[in-house]
Amino acid sequence: GAVVSQHPSWVICKSGTSVKIECRSLDFQATTMFWYRQFPKQSLMLMATSNEGSKATYEQGVEKDKFLINHASLTLSTLTVTSAHPEDSSFYICSGQGASYEQYFGPGTRLTVT
Amino acid sequence: QQQVKQSPQSLIVQKGGIPIINCAYENTAFDYFPWYQQFPGKGPALLIAIRPDVSEKKEGRFTISFNKSAKQFSLHIMDSQPGDSATYFCAASGKIYNQGGKLIFGQGTELSVKP
What we know:
The complex is a heterodimer. Chain A is built from no helices and eleven strands. By secondary structure, chain A is mainly β. In chain A, the strands form two sheets. In chain A, strands 2, 4, 5, 6, 9, 10 and 11 form a seven-stranded mixed beta sheet that branches. Chain A has a four-stranded antiparallel beta sheet with strand order 1-3-8-7, with no helix packed on it. In chain A, a hairpin with a 2-residue loop joins strand 7 and strand 8. By secondary structure, chain B is mostly beta strands. In chain B, the strands form two sheets. In chain B, strands 2, 4, 5, 9, 10 and 11 form a six-stranded mixed beta sheet that branches. Chain B has a five-stranded antiparallel beta sheet with strand order 1-3-8-7-6, with no helix packed on it. Chain B is built from no helices and eleven strands. Helices cover 0% and strands 55% of the residues of chain B. The model of chain B has no long low-confidence stretch (mean pLDDT 92). In chain B, a hairpin with a 2-residue loop joins strand 6 (56-59) and strand 7.
């Protein structure tokens, strides 16, 4: 299957600071990338969908000014959590989708806000 | 109408057993049904997927059965092994989403295979 990487895999930050998470498709061009959030023992919750060169589309209830998404190229998308608070602590996962329906997920980023 | 309902929430089987996980959907516009496997602290990995024009698909020890009229699909794991212990998610997607196939996930099933 296709490979998606995320960086960093784990990050700890202080409350009020911003954190950027990178998502890269390594061996395919991801025309669409998705960002998910997952709490322990729960399913994946879609936060936003982004197409290369376009503004991201956010799911209902997701603050677009807090979770900034950039999809500058067909292989890179970034999620910036601005002014992070402890309640933003979670497991963030991205996925890439190429020409077909298949979505390939990254390994996830564990964010802890202290 | 956008929900995908998955059951059971958790499942324990002995090594060699055949765990079965079921999913049901309501929206008939869905036309792509993947299953993902997730280990703790890792991202989901695509296991197998099916489209509604076939009733069954096998890949190795994993089989999807699809019942279009009942709007249900299930995952069977043949000869299960302790290494299959993970959380399994079903999902659905379709052309109704103009953003390239947004996935609707089920709630997940935590599978434990005892040696």
